[in-house]
Amino acid sequence: MEKYCTTSDVKITVGDNQSPPCAGLASNVLPEVQKSIKLMNSQTGVSTNNVLSRTSVAPKQNVKDIPHWYTLRTTYGREKKAYDYLISKSVVAFYPTLKSIKLVDGKRITVEESRIPNIFFAYGTEDELKTFVYDNVNLPFLRFYYRHIHVGNKIVKEPLVVPDSQMNSLKIICEADSDDVVVSTEEVEKFKQGQKVRIIDGKFKGVMGMVARYHSQQRVGIVIDGLFTICTAYVPSAFVESII
After folding, report:
1. Burial environment of residue 95 by CB neighbours within 10 A (0 to 12, 13 to 18, 19 or more)
2. SS3 (DSSP) at 214
3. Quick check: helix, strand or coil at residue 161?
4. CA distance 200 to 165
5. CA–CA gap between residue 243 and residue 197 (Å, rounded)
6. In this predicted structure, what is the pLDDT of residue 59?
7. What is the pLDDT of residues 32-87, one digit of tens each?
C-alpha cells in the first residue's frame, strides 16, 4: 500500500523547525494535510515548486552530440587524400601507416603506405563529420564505415565508433615502428576472449588488450569490431600486468 504523509508528520516537522519530509510530494499527501503544508510554507518561505525543480532529472545528452572516434572509409585507396583534407579543416584524425624500404631506380627509399587499406579515423560528433562524409563535391569517395546490428527483426546500420582506449592502443602499436606487428582483416577470436592486460614496459608500453599466443609468439591484440585485428610483436610476460 502506498504510504501517505499524515497531519502529525507535518506538525512534528514544523515543531522541529525543519523542512517536511514530504515537501514537494503532493501526490503522497492526504488532502486534509495539504492545507497544513501550504500554511507551513507561507510561514517558513519554503516553496514546494523549488523542491521539485531541484530534484528533477536533467535530460540525457544525445549520444550523437558526444564526440567519438569514428571509422571512415574511402574508395580506390584515397584515404590519404581524405585524411589530408580533414586535417586542413582542423579535424582531429588518425591515419595508420606503415613504412617500408623499396628499391626505386636502383635507390633504396622509404615509402609510407596505408596500414589498413581504405580506412582512417576522425574525432568529432556524428553531425560534425557528416558535413565531410556527405560532401559530394570535395569528398565524393568518403563514407562512414558502418556496423550492422539486429534491432528486433530488422537489421540497422550505424557508424562504427572506436572506444578511446582501443584508439590509444592502436596509435601506440602503429607508431612503435615494429616490423613484426600483425594486422588481420578478420576478427581473431583469441584476441576477443581471455585475459585483458596492460603493457607496462617496452616500445608498446600503454597498450591495453587481450594477451594470446599468435603466430608462435605471445602478443597483445585488439579487435576493432567487425573491421580488423591488430596485435603487437612479441611481448615478454614481465612486460604485462593483468587488468581486472
Report:
1. buried
2. strand
3. strand
4. 15
5. 5
6. 53
7. 545 544 544 554 444 444 433 444 444 556 667 899 999 999 999 999 999 999 99
